[in-house]
User: Fold these one by one.
Assistant:
Number 1:
Amino acid sequence: MSATESSEQVQGALTRTDRRSDREVVVTRIFDAPARLVFQAWTTPELLMRWWTPKSFGITFISCEADVRPGGTYRFVMGHPSFDQPMAFVGRYLEVDPPRRLVWTNEENEEGSVTTVTFEEKDGRTYLTLSDVYATKAALDEAMVQGGIGAFPEQFEALDGLLQTLH
Amino acid sequence: MVQFQPSVDAAFAALSDPTRRGVLEQLRRTDASITELADKFHMTLTGMKKHVGVLEQAGLVMTEKVGRVRTCRLGSRGLDEEAAWLEQHRRLWAARFNELDNVVEQLKQKEKNDERNRKQ
């Protein structure tokens, strides 16, 4: 591997999060691979299971069902040593446009967000943008207070501290 | 004195403006008077007073007038909820994407090998 390649990989490996508006949070990342492969890893349950629950978070998949086509549903059941019972994440795919765009709903909570992932390929690399749009500003604020999808047990303590400041 | 608990909404509205985010960034380093902030951000005193007013309403900034100088400092609410949540969100995705990198790398290698096998 050349020096240029490795420094580009380091830069591309930076995951960024931004609040784009009062209803939208965006995550961006660059992958050193064509969009079709990143899309494939995102839409094939066996592959998805290998990365969606990062080891460093201590979460594991119990089951992963995904009918990846417009109108198809998904159901991800995950476990963590400190969960009393498994947590299910459910929703429906709204758009499946390989290898460019994937849109799904998050229906485990009322007022869950709609997630849109776009895969833009430039020079063999994939510029990925993941956007979560909530129905209302209040719904995103609530997700932030509750911790939303980022609220895994190791962060609960920090969240408790934050919740205190709201009372 | 009435205890006023500003809404999270007000905080986010206050954060929508780049100057106000800059002011918070500045106040995170050190307290400053409205005059100092106005100079720093090349604004009129009136303009800066308005921005500070919005931040104060949202609980992000506290001000105190001593003599003729109004000093601003970070409010008790600070930036904590939003910044902490975004950081948590980023960490989760960063961890996922690092593992996704490995999966994608394997798919890439597999494609290369398949290609090579086809040629042979």
Note: Chain A is about 25% helix and 35% strand.
Number 2:
Amino acid sequence: MLVRKAPQIRASEITDERLYFNRREFLGRASIAAAAVAAPWLSPSGTSAGFTDAQALEFSTGSPFSTREPRNSFEDVTSYNNFYEFGIEKGDPKRYAVGLKTRPWTVALEGHIAKPGNYHLEDVLKPHALEERVYRLRCVEAWSMVVPWIGFPLASLIGRVEPTSQAKFVEFTTLYRPSEMPGQRRDVLQWPYVEGLRMDEALHPLTILAVGLYGKTLLNQNGAPLRLVVPWKYGFKSIKSIVKIRFVESEPATSWSASGPREYGFYANVNPDVDHPRWSQARERRIGEFFKHKTLPFNGYHDQVAGLYAGMDLRKFF
Amino acid sequence: MTTARSLRRLVKPVAFVAAVAPLTGLAFRGVGGELGANPIEVITHETGIWALRFLLITLAITPLRQLSGWRSLIGFRRMLGLFAFLCASLHFCTYLVLDQFFDFASIIEDIAKRTYIAAGFAAFVLLVPLAATSTAAMIRSLGGRRWRILHRLIYVSAVSGVAHYLWLVKADTLRPLAYGMILATLLGFRAWHALSPQAKGIVSRNPSAANRRIRALRSSAEPET
């Protein structure tokens, strides 16, 4: 396979931010899609014993944010995972995540917002139309994949909960349940797993909350039932199996950054010029290919997101 | 049939087959396409961990022999050491060919800048003279004393190998530390044995005990007919 450059997204194709926050259009789209979106989570076919079978989702395709690069197979995406809650080997999540019960599932929306509370997953998802986003995923370990996620912009959810001016950062927390997440029985990382974004990163149209991939609901090993996807950052920022979203005033203490502050920064933007202290980030192995790719600044999303970091020293804020 | 010959004829082939199993297993999984989404990573990890395991097994021979009085164990040491070298060579070749594809600029940068790569490279390079001087002719031409001194490089190689493993993991240091503990025990035994006069006392010098063990080994290793 030849190394090739991703098609650039023209500025004209990017949805204007005002359009994104146009409440009327948002509600219009939402009402049409609501029933279809919520259906898989409301349907009685999921048993109390677990929810491991992916169910078909309804979603729109053709997002201008989607890459046209070849996608990694469903098998690759669902068998090669970093999800330390289930073990440190790449095959562990697939092997051990089957025991995780994702129903019922509640998400706590907390902090500096007008409507804090514990919400059923169905209620969190109901107003949002789902769309496919085919994104590059670059792991901090220097491998990458192309994944067709199904989700909705995090910005739409943030718009609904009405953050106050004190909300400067968003902090996400993964489920902590050692009985079903065997990796949490040892302190490999600080549990529960915590990640965070600056507010403008969270509101960026590329940032999505994903509920599925390859047209179906997420499997447990991919972070079911709700996960973050931030494609210009290293994979560990894209936190899985989210149970809490908290709007805070100061930068959250995130799990990997706490584990190795010199190695994993809060920003963790994909950057070929800033090496991990122990290995190079200049190149990456696309799973399924032999020759390595050159790693692109912001994982190839430079034109869309570089403006967020204007004037920042990205070597310092790595 | 002497015990030494029976050992050569019966036990060593069994040990050889056992020692070659991890590599043949890996090869079969590779041919069958069962190495998962990132086969190069699996090959790298498997050859690396088995190099380290064989190094530790090789280093366990002398303490085991001294504790058990089972002198014939020495007959396995060279073979096990060469398996360590084989796995380390395959590990290095995987890095050179499959991972870096002869990108020497990148390899040199890796060795110079990455402590864990430098440690791994040192662990491998230090094994080269040991493998090269493993033949009976080389032992004769070097002379026993000089040969023994040269082969103490295995201690440095093993320490570098464990450091390589410890420094490459992202967060979970449990396994590399376990290998480190085993290595520390094996090297600690040698230090204790060399320094303490009491240590000599527990080492069995009783040839009849050794012979009993060899007889037991021979009977257990005899093929069933």
Note: The mean pLDDT of chain A is 89.
